[in-house]
Request: fold
Amino acid sequence: SVFRDKRDRVVRRAILWNDQRTAAECDEIEQRAGGRNKLIQMVANPALTGFTAPKILWLRNHEPRHFDKTRKILLPKDEIRRRMTGEYATDVSDASGMLLLDVAKRRWSKRLLSALELDVDLFARCYESEEVTGRLTSAAAKLLGLSTDCVVVAGAGDCAAGAVGNGIVNRGVLSTSIGTSGVMFVHSDEVKIDPQGRIHTFCHAVRGKWHMMGVNLSAGGSLQWFRNELCKADVAKARRAKVEVYDLLSKEAASAPAGSEGLFFLPYLSGERTPHAAPDARGCFIGLTLAHTRGPLLRATMAGVTSSMRHSLTIIDGLGLPVP
Reply:
């Protein structure tokens, strides 16, 4: 979240999506909304620490001086747009993750904004992803070596944009991706909401469509942690040999048998979203013995991540969305 004052200056450093400091604010949002179920009815999702609304309330609760200066709250890509066009705009897919959008109606939720005592003018105008939101300013065009005839469209959140690129734009198509986090993403022609709030329902980057998404916070991040903390010699060796260290670690994991010799890994290194909305959850190895070598540890790490992501697929299937 990027907070800007009336002179368009940044009020404070941005608070990132994976910042987990807002558990108390999530509770506050549910209370102000009249309970978890009513909140889900308003914005299709429960209050989670990764969403923008809890971060806004955290700023108001803990840094009131900064909150009082704030006149606009933008998502990172929309701050770049502002610098390119001078316009305050966002798109419905990215805005869905702010927990302030009426996802079914694809517009800001006046009911929730009122309950949270937030002025709608704090937020940018919402567009569908392909809609033009402005043109390059003269200064931006000169800096980029382009013409002021260049238009800037609304764009999309990272997962929705990636889904369009991967062809996840029709019913019955699903994708899985693992970066720092892990995402299970499925297209939906209509609004489908998990009444338990275990997976997200967002507007898609496709006009008039939606998607459901399960997110695991430490997917590739778990393997990255393993590499950084337990494989420093291997990193140096791979650098000297000019090979990718992850290829070496994958071969080592493959040498371990399926089941990792009875070893299990819970990938909750930075809390979790799906299906456990638990910012205080912590990762662990279970079943570790003196007999275990590093190969089973690596395989268990990978298996723990994929098993955790499969929970999302099970929920999606249970909601009646067709998947391959």
